[in-house]
Each structure stands twice: as structure tokens, then as C-alpha cells.
Amino acid sequence: MAINYNLVSEKIFNLLRGKGFEVSSYNKEGDIVVNPQEATRFLTQRPNLLVRLDRTKEEISLSVGKQLDDDGIRLSLKELAQDNLMSFDFRIFDKKLQPKGEKIDVAKKSEKYMNQEGKFSAKAVLEASLGKMTGSRKSSYQPLTDNVKIIVRHNKDVNEEVRGARSRNIHSILIQRGEEKFKMAENNLSAARAMARHLHNGGETFDPIGESITSMAKDFGKLKEFVRYVRSSNLVNETNQEFVDLAFENIEHIKTNLKRLSGVKSYATACETVQDYNNVELLQDDLDLESKFTETHFDDKVANVMDNIKAMASRKTAFETKITNAIAIESFKGVKGILAEDDGMDFATPEAKLGHQVSQLGYTAKDKTLGNYLHGISNKLSNGGQLTQFEYGAIKSSLLSASQYNESIQFEASAEDSYESFINQFVEE
Fold first, then answer.
1. Strand pairing of 59-64 and 87-92?
2. Are 397 and 330 in contact (CB under 8 A)?
3. Residues 218 and 154 placed together within one structural domain of the fold
């Protein structure tokens, strides 16, 4: 019997996610991948374990940094191996586990990934993470690698005894890559960290993602000032409340995107999310927002952000319409079989269970934008986040669509009231 390695890879991923673990998936080259079917290694930090799928040996191996508290993981992986006529190996190591690529194309790698002996280090590529901020009274430095670092100039002396002092009183922020230095348009450390990650990964400040980071930083500053001002000045009323809420929603959206863009594990998927959102065609602008804030008065602090809010409202409507239309024609072909294979899995929390189901919808969606969107919701649920009303509706519609095309597949109680009660608990009030 030929082994379906893609299916085995996905089952390994689902088994670990079902336990509530944060899973990083890597292919045989050691690169992080979004689709678990492409992965040969699965890493979790808590608990620290590494699952390896060896196609040459027809083997599943489990390596752990220390003895597992939950022996069910080992037994489940062993059963998965046996069901697919594969061997199983289990080892305990007294050290932190990290994935290594099966093969590395040295010729394609930069000198910045060389170790002190002049040899290529996959660890440097995979583990490049932001270091601690250090520096002098007027300057702070935060390294990503030896080649990329953040430089912060302060307009007041840094008091080392005050927690977070190096993140305050910022005069300017620069990103240094090799001998090059780039000045950030906004004094936003989250944006600077995202840009540093982008440059480290081979991007440029002027490419679409680099420009999106700059744009998000500018929007963040304007929106934050706007929300603070209209609330402190009591300008919020029934006619404009939804647009103030929209501004706040985008503040949180920008914070999330910048954080994900700065992460070694989340960078790739964050890029796709940003591109999907930016690529939607804006609707015709017929909003008269100015009139909704003139009941009391209208000044520059309100006027400066009107164009931003109009664009955000238009883009949000266009994007949600695109998602709704994609769901309407999506069959989620094959999701019934995938979930049937996972039947009986134990989940640590209801969030993990719902997140798992949504992730499976994302993997089987033909529309790439819809797939990325559902993966984003899945990650949000797995991290304990609350759903917006639209996200809630998108899940319900996706499940109904999947049920229609997958022979009465059951998700909890399908579209019945009990299932609605189940997902209602994750919706923002």
C-alpha cells in the first residue's frame, strides 16, 4: 500500500493542534510552510517536542526535550504510524529541540547566515529573533541579526532604572542593514520591528510589503490621535459611533498585522494577509463623514483622518463582499474526509476545537484569499481571541456551504441551535 505522506503530515499537524499546542511546520529544506501537507517537521515549544516524518525510512519519529507529562501524544503518533504501515521512533533529549533541514542549498544563502567557522547555519535563518534593547543615554539598539538592527534616537536621556524607558521619548528610528540605513517615516517601534524582519527576509522598504508597513504606521498614528480626541471632546454620538468603532477596529488590526510581520513564524502568512486586504478594489466613495462630526464642531484633528476612514470603510466593505462571494461558491471539497479522519481527537479547549475545524475549511478552500482569511480566524481562536460579527457569520456560512457539498457533514450540531450557541461564546459583544 502506497503511503499518502501529505495526509500523514496533515494528521500529525492536526493531532498537535488538537492538543492546543502552537505548531510550527517546516519542509525538508528547513523553510517554514503554511500548508502542513508540505511539512516534514513539526515543532512545538510548550511542550518542547519535534515530530519528524521520514519518507525515506517510512518512519514517524518523536523527539522531546524532556519526559512528556501527556503520554497520549506518543501513543497517538505511534498508532498513526502503525495505521499507515510505518515505523515509529521515540527519543528523549536533555536539550532544547529545533528543526534542521534535510538539505541546504548553500550557494543561495547569504554570508549573513554563516557561523564563526564560516559554515552555513540553518539555525541563524530559522531562529533569527529580535534581541534585547540596549544602548547609551541618547541611543538604543535592538538587533535582529548581525546584519540587521533597529536604531532608536531619543530626545531625552534614557533612565535605565525605568522599565520600558528605551521605548519612550523617541526622536527618530532607523533600520540598519549592513552598511545601509533607512529612516522610518513614523516613530513606531512595532512598525520598525516589522520592517527589520522584512529587510532580513530579503524585502525592501519600497516594495509592496515595505510600503504597506509604512502606510500602516502612518494610519496607526492618525487613527489613535483621532479616537483619543473625539472621545475626550465628547464628539461621539449615534450618527458617528460606527465610524469611531471602525477606527478603533483598524488600530487593533494594524497592531496585529505589524506584530505578525515581525515574527519569524508568522511573517509569511502575515504578508499574504496584508496583500489580500490591500488588493481589493475600493468601492465608489459616497460617504459624507464630515457631516456626522459637525453637530458639535469640525476641526483639523477630525479632518486629517476623514480620508483614511473613508478608505477603510470602503476597503472593509469590498473585502467582506469578496469573502462572502467566495464562500457562496466554495464547496470545501474533501473537508468531510479530513474531519472524519480526525474524529475522536481530544482538544484542550473549545477554542482549539473550533479553531481546528475552521483551519480545515481553510485548507480545503479553492479560493486562496478565503483560505488565508479562515486560517487567520483559526489562529485568532487558538490564541483565545474573540470573533467579530462578520467573522462569526463567515464561519457559519462556510460550515453551511461545506455541509451542502459534503453530504450532510456534521460540525458539532451542524447549523442547529446548539452549534450556534457553541460559536456564540467566541463573538465580541
1. parallel
2. no
3. yes
